[in-house]
Amino acid sequence: MEILRTENVNKIYEDNKVPVHALKNINLKINKGEYVAIAGPSGSGKTTLLNLLGTLDKPTSGKIYFENSDFTSKSRKELSEFRLRKLGFIFQAYNLIPVLTALENIEFSMMLLGVPEKERRERAKNLMAELGIDGLANKRPNEMSGGQQQRVAVARAIVNNPRIVLADEPTANLDSENGSKLLDLMEKMNEEKNITFIFSSHDKQVIERARRLILLKDGRIVSEN
User: Fold this and answer.
1) Strands laid side by side in the 196-200 sheet
2) β-bridge partners, 30
3) What CA–CA distance (Å, rounded) separates 194 from 3?
4) 166 near 192, Cβ under 8 Å?
5) Portion of the chain with pLDDT greater than 70, in percent
6) pTM
7) φ, ψ for residue 178 (rounded to 5)?
8) Cα separation of 30 and 38, whole Å?
């Protein structure tokens, strides 16, 4: 079942008043439960495409549909609500809130949605136990290793049961062992919870494990399998 679709998507930035065509006529369909990697050399448009799919940016032209609803015409408030309820994000820099504990970081998006404190705490604790990070509950980001922070970031991304998780270079700051553990974790979430994962990466590990690979070059899709 199709969950995400782009139609003739273009993105043009201005660099010192010179137009830079970051994405050119992107036509893409992603089905629910897919595990997809977007790969390509630096500057190929990977992060730009991920930002558009995650509604963090808007295309210059073209349409993006989520479950057949056109998201290029929605208001900023509607998009913010959509991201909070339907999407999860994992960034290479982790982006945890430094003054909050691991448990509080995971609870944060539920707090924004108005989930009662008791339910928030229970859901976060259950998920941490499931992911094997319950021992980190009271630690702040600066007390955790990179691998631990990224596992907390995964928990934060999936605690609201999103339809799609978008991961931008999630293994970039991890050594190969922790990168492999993180991918094991995300594969498990994909298989057990049927969450759609879309990665932007040039990490060989991520690319080899993807069940579908979309290759970008100079802002165009040059192959997909």
Assistant:
1) 87-91, 164-168, 196-200, 35-39, 212-217, 220-224
2) 4
3) 12
4) no
5) 100
6) 0.90
7) -70, -35
8) 12
DSSP SS3 for 63:
strand
Distance of CA 51 to the CA centre of its chain: 9
Helices (H), the chain: 46-53, 76-86, 102-112, 117-131, 146-158, 176-193, 204-209
pLDDT bracket for residue 109 (50, 70, 90): confident
Distance CA 46, CA 28 (A): 13
Cα angle 132-114-79, degrees, rounded to a multiple of 5: 95
Rounded Cα distance, 3 and 66, in Å: 6
How is residue 47 written in tokens?
A: 């992060």
Q: What DSSP state is assigned to residue 41?
A: S
Lay out the sheet containing 61-66: strands in order across.
Answer: 18-31, 2-15, 61-66, 69-70
Find the angle CA(90)-CA(42)-CA(94) to the nearest 5 degrees: 20
